[in-house]
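(Structure overview)
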Amino acid sequence: MKLTAKISLLLALTSVLLLGVLAIGIEQVILPRFAALEEQMLRQDQERLAQTLDSEFQQLSRLARDWGAWDDTYRYLQAPYPEYESGNITPATYDNIQIDGLLLFDAQARLFRDFSYSRASRRFETQSPGFIALLSAQLRQRQSEAKRYGIIEDRGRVMQLALSPIQDSNGEGAPRGTLVMVRVLNDSLVDALAKRLQVRLSFHRLSEEDASPDVALAAKSLDRQPLVVQAVSDETIIAYSQLLDINGYPALLMRVERPRDIWRQGQAATRYLFWFSAAGVLAVGLVFLWMLERGVLHRLKRLSHALLELGDLGRLEERVEVSGDDEIALLAQAANTMLADLQEATHAQQRAAERQREQNATLVHLATHPAFGAGDDEAMRRIIVAAIARGAFANRISFWQRSPGESELSCRAAQWVGGQPVEPELWPLVSEDWLREALEAGEEGIWRQAGIEQTHRSALLMGYAVEDWAGVMCIESLGQAYRWHPDEVTYLMSVNSLGQQYLRGQVERSRSLALRAQAEQDPLTGLANRTGFERKLAAAVAEGEAQGGGFALAFLDLDEFKPINDRHGHAVGDWLLKEVAKRLKLCLRTGDILARLGGDEFTVILAGTHDAEAVRRIGQKIVEAVAEPYGHALGNLRVGASLGLALFPEHGASAEALAHAADMAMYAVKKAGRGACRIYEPGDGEAARGDAA
């Protein structure tokens, strides 16, 4: 990538980062403030509404007190007379004071008169017996309270109540009864309140079964807090609070809604701020790039073009022009010095490059050869010998190795570079000191020249070690006193390093296989554990899908095992589990898979078994075998087995579904009395498992 492109990319990334920080600031700091302001205003609306409703209650309460302290009401309760009713209990009076009912109770909290009036139908009516009984009971329980007001619900109507004792105007003597004023909270009253406060207002009963999800959620939340605010969309925000009944318990949910004008204005403002900032950043970046291009990049491009032209033409004897005295001029002078050095070293590098190219190609071939990852030691030795022959002057290669548990290195193989094996009687006699020194030197190797077998030779030994494995590769040049070239030594070290990587891969593969076997085996019974079972079940499902075959899965849980384990100890319990595992093995066929999931739970994959009746017979055989007594020094121990069976793919087309079906069938057996086997049926569900537990 060119410098101009890099600088542009860096500037773009910086701009994106700045704009990202701005966007995060808008999202996390500015917009939440608009939301908080909006919520605060909604809370104020809710408070004003609560104050207005309280004022309505106070007004109704004052009316009730005035009528309760009126001498005419006091005398009427003692001896009713028509003038009281004709002068006061009229539609005009009810319309004037905005009430829907007037009820008089005597001193024993019994209904004396019911003057209820429906302003909607313009006629007098009576309250329901349930409503009268509720008021009467409340008055008897709270006779000591002089007055009270609140909300009450009856026959789907929500009503405001105000209660006042009936006394003479002087307030002397015991009250003769209680006066109850009723005002129905109807739609017209709600609309009047909403219009007065300029909000959207609605009331909801807490017992509404068809309430919307947000109303139901708010009702639950109001148990923990007095006010709940919800932003239901980008257009609307809602606040909920409760109105209390006459006993101080929640009776009504009050919903105040307002449009999210502040939020939308905040979004618009922050959007303008973001795009204005983006435009500013873009403008500053373009000005910066223009100044950088004119002052710096233009001269650098000229210098770069001159150097590239010289390199393309191969004229290392030429030099670039130098102008000025700044850093770019110093860079041009350094380039001229570099060209001079390159001119001197070009020929030597070309020869070395050709040799290294051939060696690198050989190393790539060695590293990508299929034998490198196949774990074939003999094939790996052959390709190593061939690689050494192509990249170094050698006649014979021998491999010395010490496996885990061995104390000395021994020659495992020796080959001529042509590939023919060396007869054992002609294997090189390498001294123990040489081998020990080579192991200590590692991949750097040691070089030795000596007369062995009456032949002058040169030998390069390189050692390697992987955990408890160790080895030495001995490369010999026979028939002359040969000193290894540094390039050859480096190349042979790379070959030796690849050999060490191969051995490390072999060790890792062996360890992986051992760890996998250990991880998938139950240490107590030697069976597959849950991990091994899940892998084998997944393999069985995959094979069934590919070949269209079927199999059965059994889940088995021991009955009455826990009392034995608790009574006699874990040692006896472990012995019993191993004995059960032995019996289960005797019941199974070659190819069936037995596993212990943990505790006293076992599972069996019945391979190639698809017939329901055959599966049932095998399951019954297992149940009967497990139920036979177990001879122990403590006496005969007895356990039973509850076994659930599921068929693939009828009861589950996946490992999870099949295991769930077998598990449910097993729990259905437990529910039915245990000590039996059962093939899964659609009725075996979670209820069976819950009942069994």
